Amino acid sequence: MLKAIKLPLIKPKVTGNEIRILGSKNAGKTTYLAALLRVPRELQKQFPGLDITPLTDDATRLIEATQNIVEQGGKFSATDIGNEPDFYFQIKIPATRKASAITLELVVKDYAGELFEMAAQPHKWSELAPYFDDWCTTQSWMIMLTDWQTNKDNREYKPALEKLVNELNERAKVKPELQNLRIAVVMTKCERGELWPCRLDPEDDLFRVRLPQTHRLLTSKLPPHRLRFFACSSFGVLSDLPGDRDPRPNRYVPTDGSSAESNAYLREPDAWKPYGLISPLYWLSTGRVLHDEYL
Amino acid sequence: MVRALAENGRHVRVDGNDSLVKELYDPVKKSIAGTDTVQERPLVMNIDMPATGVRQIRVLWIDTPGEFWSNSQHRVDHSSAWQALEEKACSSRALILLLPPHQTLVQKERLNNALTHLKPVEDLPNAEQWVNRLEWWLNFFAERCKGVKHILIAIHKADLFCDVKAESKHWQYRPEGGKSTPWFEYSEYVLDTYFSVASKGIRKYKSSEIGSRTHFFITTTEDQGLLELPWLFLGPYIAYR
């Protein structure tokens, strides 16, 4: 005779975290947050239980702005220094065979690109200091980089990160909790042709190859449990369904002389399916790698 | 432009401003008051956003005499006024530049058939003058307007150089239709079709950082569909922040 077994009700784990997003101008930080909060339909279809809920006005307004701007073939203007919005939102990731359900409750602040660039210039440090103080009140940094110009590695990214990590390590001597601060380094816009196949192994195929100085610096200064490399694409490609593969970027760059670095627009809003947006947030919040690299 | 949006706005309306319209427009003579000093007027605009419906934005409209911009001697003669004006422009979030069409763009039949009150008051510039003027502007934007988030450049009086009904039918905003025209398509079309005489300078400008924040339009007070487009473009940005 079979006995009915009553399983205990398992509430999904809720993990809270505060994250600072830094990175170069035009890296696509705001667009990243927009794509994340919007959860375009194609992404929702692939992950039916995925639920991302805004919890502040700033977050709700970003979703509206995404619908009115990005989905209409526009792009966000640059974030202003001193005017950084606070995005507080919740991500519910459904259970799979490999992992149980989890809810992330996140406060994310998106900083102007100029600030990251200032870190590379010694004479600007005093101007940057109050921001740095704020960045050291959290346990999670997300650094977003794009590699449109090859000299950005040695002229901007490496010197900026060197300064930030050195200062961080100094600060950690008096503030021990900073010794656990995790840094997720994300290569954005990986929908671009030559980058797309490399997204599955970002550290080796993207960072080591394309930003070698930055990669070498970071791996020499931070242990593996505090540093991880990611790739993401806020626009994604046109289609990745087996049988209907169209790996062309879902991106339009005007032919009027505009530079692709700051002038890409979402080409097909109906086909919008971002890649890899949640993985860095998940790792920063749990120390574990998310089971599905598409998320 | 403001008068037309106040009186006949559909998806972009300047809010309840009968006094504003009276100030600007003489219905008997059908003439618009010219601007001879820098005038600041607060406007409340209701803009129909594609995804979320009507949102209200507050705009400070800074209207400036044409001479300041077209006449370098005027700038020298009124240098403190010019400086004040420059500063206002550079500290704005967005600039809308309205240019007249040049002679070669205008179609003779359209000019002859235009209603009297629509005929241009002064002679239109020839193509070379027009390109020089535009390049002065692009230079001004690149050098002095680095903080401006959005620069919109429109060739006004489109009724003189194209079939506004046809263009409007193609490009006008149709929220009920579901899909609206992507802005990048529109801007490219306008550049190719109406700004071609200045294409070399524009290409160079477009490759710069400020070029990435500049969009191109055609406008006319004779068609709401085209007239509203710059505002429909700008609306979500201003409403969002």
Overall description:
The complex is a heterodimer of chains A (295) and B (241). With 295 residues, chain A is an alpha/beta fold. Chain A is built from 9 helices and 11 strands. In chain A, the strands form 3 sheets. In chain A, strands 2-3-4-1-5-6-7 form a 7-stranded mixed sheet. In chain A, strands 8-9 form a two-stranded antiparallel sheet. By secondary structure, chain B is of the alpha/beta class. In chain B, a hairpin with a 4-residue loop joins β2 and β3. At the A-B interface, α3 of A face α9, α10 and α11 of B.
CATH class group of chain A: Alpha Beta
Shape descriptor of chain B: globular
The percent range for strand residues of chain B is 15-25%
What is the C-alpha radius of gyration of chain A, as a whole number of Å? 19 Å
Largest sheet of chain A: 7 strands, mixed
Kindly identify the CATH topology of chain A.
Rossmann fold
Q: Which secondary-structure class do the elements of chain B indicate? A: alpha/beta
N-to-C order of helices and strands of chain A: EHHEHEEHHEHEHHEEEEEH
Q: Hey, which two chains have the biggest interface?
A: A-B, 24 and 32 residues
CATH hierarchy: architecture of chain B = 3-Layer(aba) Sandwich
Q: Helix segment count of chain B?
A: 11
> How are strands sequenced across the largest beta sheet of chain B?
1-4-5
The helix/strand series of chain B, from N terminus to C terminus, equals HEHEEEEHHHEHHEHHHEH
Termini separation of chain A comes to 44 Å
CATH homologous superfamily name of chain A?
A: P-loop containing nucleotide triphosphate hydrolases
How widely separated are the two ends of chain B? Answer: 24 Å
Percent of residues in helices of chain A: 25-40%
The domain count of chain A comes to: 1
